[in-house]
């Protein structure tokens, strides 16, 4: 696996890549509070299967650029990063995979640039309209999303999140994933990323931007791209009902659930996720 920086104008994206140069292009997007290593189990399997895999640290993470303005983390800007990687790869169509915030960006890319997608794979994040509608109407989901509102407070999250060697992050990941899903190697890689100057503010700015300026797709809410939603049922932040409601927005899609998995599905079920991804790619070639 190699690392390069791919540029969207002034925004540099630290990107791992692997696989044959002539393989169909797969882009894997991580979420909060992780980094490229979300996909460490999937990268070698997909590359071995013949896919050309790109795994960025999303803007604000790792050694990717950390622009100062909250507006720079709006999803309309984030999907431009995805398209910069597609252009760098020199292809018209990609297979796009996302988890957590990466999944939200992947949904938005599919709504705005369906012509660039061969397939879409979503892990444990609902369709944007489902998420917003549920948070507004469901007080239980609002309580589960408490951290979104906490992150709106100026400066305080940046000061508290690193306390006790990033205890909040480590505790959340351990408590809400299956036992053993995160290794010491995983935490070591994550902590290196969390310690990078400016990382905390940039990571939190995703949530600040989301509430300050909610996006509207010019093409409506339907997903036309062949889509699979993979969902760990023991997600303490997001309900299974949200996954089922998201399936209703798919013109050509499916929902697969895992009763014994959590929000951190790529860690809990690495082999199953890899197999599902390859099956979806094969059924929908670029």
How would you describe this protein?
This protein has 286 residues and is of the alpha/beta class. The chain has one domain: Alpha/Beta hydrolase fold, catalytic domain (Rossmann fold, 3-Layer(aba) Sandwich), CATH 3.40.50. 44% of the residues lie in helices and 20% in strands. It has 13 helices and 8 strands. Strands 1-2-4-3-5-6-7-8 form an 8-stranded mixed beta sheet, with helices on both faces. Helix 2 (75-89) packs across helix 3 (101-112). It is globular, with a radius of gyration of 17 Å. The two termini are 23 Å apart. InterPro entries: AB_hydrolase_1, AB_hydrolase_fold, Epox_hydrolase-like. This is Pimeloyl-ACP methyl ester carboxylesterase.
Q: How is the topology of this model organized?
A:
Blueprint: E1 2-8, E2 11-18, E3 25-29, H1 42-48, E4 52-56, H2 75-89, E5 94-99, H3 101-112, E6 117-123, H4 128-137, H5 139-144, H6 146-150, H7 156-160, H8 163-176, H9 184-194, H10 199-212, E7 227-234, H11 240-247, E8 253-262, H12 265-268, H13 270-283
Parallel strand pairs: 3-4, 3-5, 5-6, 6-7, 7-8
Antiparallel strand pairs: 1-2, 2-4
Helix pairs in contact: 2-3
Gist?
Pfam families: Abhydrolase_1 (PF00561). The protein is an alpha/beta fold and 286 residues long. It has helices spanning 42-48, 75-89, 101-112, 128-137, 139-144, 146-150, 156-160, 163-176, 184-194, 199-212, 240-247, 265-268, 270-283; strands at residues 2-8, 11-18, 25-29, 52-56, 94-99, 117-123, 227-234, 253-262.
């Amino acid at each position: 696996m190699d690392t390069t920086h791919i540029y969207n104008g002034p925004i540099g994206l630290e990107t791992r890549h692997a696989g044959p140069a002539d393989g169909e292009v797969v882009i894997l997007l991580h979420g909060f509070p992780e980094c490229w290593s979300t996909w460490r189990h999937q990268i070698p399997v997909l590359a071995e299967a013949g896919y050309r895999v790109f795994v960025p640290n999303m803007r604000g993470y790792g050694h990717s650029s950390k622009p100062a303005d909250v507006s720079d983390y709006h999803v309309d800007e984030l999907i431009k990063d995805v398209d910069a990687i597609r252009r760098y790869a020199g292809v018209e169509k990609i297979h796009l995979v996302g988890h957590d915030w990466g999944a939200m960006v992947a949904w938005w890319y599919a709504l705005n640039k369906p012509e660039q997608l061969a397939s879409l794979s979503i892990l444990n994040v609902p369709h944007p309209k489902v998420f917003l509608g549920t948070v507004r109407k469901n007080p239980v989901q609002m309580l589960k999303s408490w951290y979104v509102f906490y992150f709106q407070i100026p400066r305080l999250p940046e000061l508290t999140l690193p306390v006790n060697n990033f205890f909040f992050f480590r505790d959340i990941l351990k408590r809400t994933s299956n036992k053993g899903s995160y290794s010491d190697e995983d935490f070591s890689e994550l902590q290196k990323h969390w310690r990078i100057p400016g990382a905390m503010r940039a990571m939190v700015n995703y949530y600040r931007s989301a509430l300050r300026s909610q996006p509207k797709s010019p093409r409506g809410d339907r997903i036309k791209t062949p889509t699979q939603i993979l969902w760990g049922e023991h997600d303490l932040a997001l309900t299974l009902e949200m996954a089922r409601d998201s399936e209703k927005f798919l013109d050509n899609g499916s929902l697969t659930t895992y009763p014994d998995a959590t929000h951190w599905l790529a860690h809990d079920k690495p082999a199953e996720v890899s197999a599902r991804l390859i099956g979806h790619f094969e059924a929908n070639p670029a």
